Amino acid sequence: MNAILSDELRIAEWFNKWGNPLRRWVGHRFNLRPPEIDDVVQETFVKILRYSLHTSIEHPQTYLFKIATNVVIESSERHRNKLPHDHEWLNTLLIDPSQEPEHLAENRSYGILLDQALMKLTHRQKTIFLMHHKHDLTNEEIANRLNLTLRVVKRDLENSKTYLRDLLSETDI
């Protein structure tokens, strides 16, 4: 038990002594970004913890730098051998945002509120609003179908939109 504790203390001492020089050397030698440098240094000391128990190391700094070099080489090999994902396969994983559960529930709640709000419009305003937004009819087409003037259709449509916007903006949705 004391041997393990003394090995851990020895490695902690090495980390304090050569951790920053190892970071600088790895960053300069291998042109890595800071997070990658930290990963290499951490992996180096983890490997030393695994393999150096009860091992006499005459030149710890050389040993550390050699292990760090091996860690970088192993990492680059892993990255080089990774196959890129096929973009078509990745696209099958995407969910249409409108189909996500929270959006479906939100849309359902919004639909209920909209239906309740539409019930408060006059019959003509509701008809004009639905013809315009649900059936994509122009104001002129609505006026012709309902035998109304263009001015009446525009006014009722604008009043409906204002009423619905005000009513729905009062809700949390």
Beta-strand share of residues: under 5%
Question: Any idea what the radius of gyration is?
Answer: 35 Å
Instruction: Output the CATH topology of the largest domain.
Output: Rna Polymerase Sigma Factor, Chain: A
Number of domains: 2
Principal-axis shape equals rod-shaped
In CATH, the architecture of the largest domain is Orthogonal Bundle
> What's the tally of helices?
8
Give the topology string: H per helix, E per strand.
Answer: HHHHHHHH
Largest sheet: none
The first-level CATH class of the largest domain is given as Mainly Alpha
Mean pLDDT: 81
Number of strands: 0
Structure description:
Helix content is 77%, strand content 0%. The mean pLDDT is 81. It has 173 residues and is an all-alpha fold. The chain contains eight helices and no strands. The protein starts with a helix and ends with a helix. It has two domains: 2-80, Rna Polymerase Sigma Factor, Chain: A (Orthogonal Bundle); 118-173, Winged helix-like DNA-binding domain superfamily/Winged helix DNA-binding domain (Arc Repressor Mutant, subunit A).
